[in-house]
Design goal:
Rossmann fold; alpha/beta; single chain; 176 residues
Amino acid sequence: MRKALFIDRDGTLNVDVNYAHKVEDCHLLEEWIWEVLQKCRDAGYLLIVTTNQAGIDKWYYTEEDFWKFHAELERQLGMQFDKVYFCPYHPDISGEHSWRKPNNGMILQANTDFDIDLSASYMIGDNLKDIEAWNKSQCKTILINKQNNLDVTDSHVVPEYVVMSWQEIEKIILHT
């Protein structure tokens, strides 16, 4: 079995602009993310992006736009992810879908595709929907609260770790 980092995209890897899809709007959340990701890959972690992309279902952008944005993200990082799973559906348009976070369908599919030890894997995201999806899958959870604007004390979903930077993420994954 392999271990993985399940990583949300918008607000976790790149700066979250409303329905991020334009290549010119692609900016890394922190410039040294690639170093942390490479160290994790060197430590044996698969790097898997799992992201809701309801803007596709809402006709704000196309799947082609999504992939162009993703290609720019990988170019800025100087690396490719092992796999990208995305949910293009919005419940008000297409109904509920098992892949749409806070559901954990993307993780279950990754587990089928890669035979992942979920208990040895981490989820990194910037909102509680991310954390809820990964709690259902029994991964370790890291909430990146870059703006320090999320209050998890009133939530039924509690991440194992709350951090403000990718450097803190590195310490958790590689040094605990």
